[in-house]
Amino acid sequence: MASVELSHIRKTYGALEVIHGVSLSITEGEFIALVGPSGCGKSTLLRMIAGLEDISDGEVLIGGNVVNSLTPRERNIAMVFQSYALYPHMTVAENMGFNLKLSGVAKPEIKKLVGEAARMLALEDLLDRKPSQLSGGQRQRVAMGRAIVRNPAVFLFDEPLSNLDAKLRVQMRTEIKTLHQKVGTTSVYVTHDQIEAMTLADRIVVLNAGRVEQVGTPLELYRSPANLFVAGFIGSPA
Ligand code: ADP
Ligand code: MG
């Protein structure tokens, strides 16, 4: 696992600035929830940490090293999206091992790593199935498995549960937290669901229109919201 630091990050699309100088220090092993209304810049920020989006200004550090010019693969991060983007023609095992194969990992090693991840996610009996033969929750688990096999230093989640029904969402929430602890990784978890953020996170970052409004533990934000926006978002009395 690795620390993640954002230093005065800005993002502009043409003449429009959507992230206005965000700074944030995330400790090794921490579970951070990044919350805020739709369009406030959560995905953009996450994609800049991942290296999927250029940074207009500022620095991203992972494990203390500036990674601005590194590719996503070189950053040793894994990202889980709400659309699982599994390959429909591949089995669960092939989907989970695909990135390892691309990296040139030998077949027996791929089998071992996929097996370990499958055990952790209770997917052992489903390894030969195709994605179309899985439930939504199982597909999401495969997507997480695909991320875990690479033993990432940092896990990035972008609203991974928003396509699931309410009951499954609660169950998967617990699984994600367990996974974070078992794998021993640093996690940044984007959600617009306050309850999800409150139950999962060590600290919550509240983003509004490209700026950080407040950073704190769920209890700190609930008890002492910095302003009405945070109070309204967290649902606490201001
Ligand atoms: P969130 O994930 O919080 O809903 P996003 O990070 O997706 O927000 O978007 C933040 C802002 O950046 C929005 O105003 C969005 O319209 C804008 N934006 C995102 N991607 C692009 C793009 N490729 N070109 C122009 N504007 C974009
Ligand atoms: Mg988004």
From TrEMBL:
Family to which this protein belongs: Belongs to the ABC transporter superfamily.
Gene Ontology cellular-component annotations: ATP-binding cassette (ABC) transporter complex, substrate-binding subunit-containing
Record key words, sorted: ATP-binding, Cell inner membrane, Cell membrane, Membrane, Nucleotide-binding, Transport
Name of the protein: ABC transporter ATP-binding protein
Keyword Mitochondrion recorded: no
Superkingdom to which the source organism belongs: Bacteria
GO biological process, one term: carbohydrate transport
Cellular localisation: Cell inner membrane
Segment forming the signal sequence: none
Lineage: Bacteria, Pseudomonadati, Pseudomonadota, Alphaproteobacteria, Hyphomicrobiales
Gene Ontology molecular function terms on file: ABC-type transporter activity; ATP binding; ATP hydrolysis activity
Membrane topology, as annotated: Peripheral membrane protein
Residues of the full protein shown: 1 to 238 of 357
Domain ABC transporter: 4-234
